[in-house]
Amino acid sequence: MNYSGMNILVVGMARTGLAAAEFLVKRGARVTINDAQPASALGDAVARAAASGAAVVVGEHPADLFTRADLIVISPGVPMSLQPVAEARRRGIPVVGDMEIAFAEMKGRICAITGSNGKTTTTALTGKILSDAGLPTVIAGNIGTPLIAMLDRDSAETWFVCEMSSFQLEATVELRPRIASILNVTPDHLDRYDTFGSYASAKRRIYEKQTPEDFLVLNGDDPLLADERPASSLYYFSRKMEPTQGCFLRGDVVALSTPRARGTLMPVHQIPLKGTHNVENVMAAALMALLAGVEMPGIRKSIEGFRAVSHRLQFVAQIRGVDFFNDSKATNVDATIKALESFPGNIIVILGGKDKGGDYGPLAELCRQKVKATILIGQAADKIASSLAGACALERASSLEEAVGRGFDLATPGDTVLLAPACASFDMFRDFEHRGDVFVSAVTRLKARVS
Description:
The chain is of the alpha/beta class. The chain has helices spanning 15-26, 39-42, 45-51, 63-67, 83-90, 98-105, 119-132, 166-170, 196-204, 276-291, 296-304, 333-341, 364-370, 381-388, 400-410, 432-450, and strands at residues 7-11, 30-35, 55-58, 71-74, 95-96, 109-114, 137-141, 159-163, 179-182, 215-219, 233-238, 246-250, 253-257, 262-267, 314-319, 322-326, 347-352, 371-377, 393-396, 416-419. Helix 7 crosses helix 10, helix 7 packs across helix 11 and helix 10 packs antiparallel against helix 11. It is globular and about 65 Å long. The mean pLDDT is 95.
C-alpha cells in the first residue's frame, strides 16, 4: 500500500505503537501518535516518537484526531471499544493493528501462534527449530519485538514465527498465516471482553482468511476447538487421543502421523521442560516445524536443546533445600493450574495482582492437594482469599519482596516457593516481565543473605 501523504493516527505509545509510527513515517505518511497517559508516565517514549517525525499528542484522546484520520493503527493495549475508536469505525475509517500493516508489506510467510497459555514457549521453540534447521527465521509479535519492526529481514524464504494475542487478532482484517495454531482457549481477559465467547471469537480470527494451501494446528483435547471447520488443512495435537493427522502421545513417547512423517518423535522424558502442558507445547511446535519443512531428526535435536524462557516455570535458585520458581507469565487461573500441576506437592504459592475478571474457585482443589500455604499480594488478594478459604493456609504480603521472604520462612527443605499469580501485573508492576524480574532479584538477595 502507498502510505505517502496519508493522515494516519497511531493509538498507543508502547513498543508496538512506536514501531508502527516509525515504519509509517519512513513511508511518507503524516503520522500522529496519541496516548491517553500524560508525558510524565510515558518516559522516553515521547522523545522517541518525536524523533521519528511523528506528531505527538498525549494526556487525552481528542475526538477530532480520530475523525480526521485516513487510517487508524491501534496498539494491542487499546480496546476497539474505546469511544473515539468506535466512532471512527462507525464513520467508515479503517482501524487495523501493526500485524495487518506488516502482513500487507511482507514477502515471507507467517507461522502464527495464539492461545490462552503457552504462546511464548511454543513460539520460541518453533522459532528455534526452524532456525536450527537453517531456515531464515524471525521471532516476533507479542513475544517482545513488534512484527512491523522486523521487516528489514524480510525475504520470500523468511519464516516469521509470531506470537499473537487476542488483542492483536481483534485488529486484523486480511491476515493469512501460512501456518496457524490455537494452543488452548480458557477464560482470560474477561475485564476486556463482555463474554468468554467474544474472547474465543477473537482467537479464531487467526485462521479465518486461510485457504486450502494453508495449515491449522489445534489442541484436540480442548472441547472448544473440537468442531472447528477451517478452509485450511487441519492437524491436531493431543495427549488423550491419536488423531488421524497430527501429533500425540502413545504411551510414554511423542509420535507423529502426517503425510510427511510417521512414527516416534521422542520419549517424553527427553523433553527438557516441566509440566504436562509443556508436552502439549512441544507437540504443537513439532507439528508446525514439520509443516514448515523441517525433518524429524532436526526437530528432536532442537527440542532436546531447548530451555525454558524467562518467567515461564523458570528455576531461579535453591536456598537451603527450598526451590524457587518464577512463573510470572501465569496471568490467568488456567496458567496457574498448569503451574501447580507441574509439581508433586509441598508448594508455597504466591498469588495476586490485578484482577482480570476470572473465577479463582478452580484453584481450590489443587491448593488442598498440593499447597502448604498461599501468600496473597495486590488488588485481587481479597477476591482470591474468598475463593480459597478453607483450601489452604492464607497469608498476606504488602510487596513481592515480602512474599518471597515469608515463603522462605514457611518452607522446609524439599518445598517449592512458586510465583504463579493468576492475575495481571499492572497494579504493582509495568508488566509480567518486571514482576518476574523483581521476584528473581528478591530471591537472589535472599540467597546472598542466608548462604
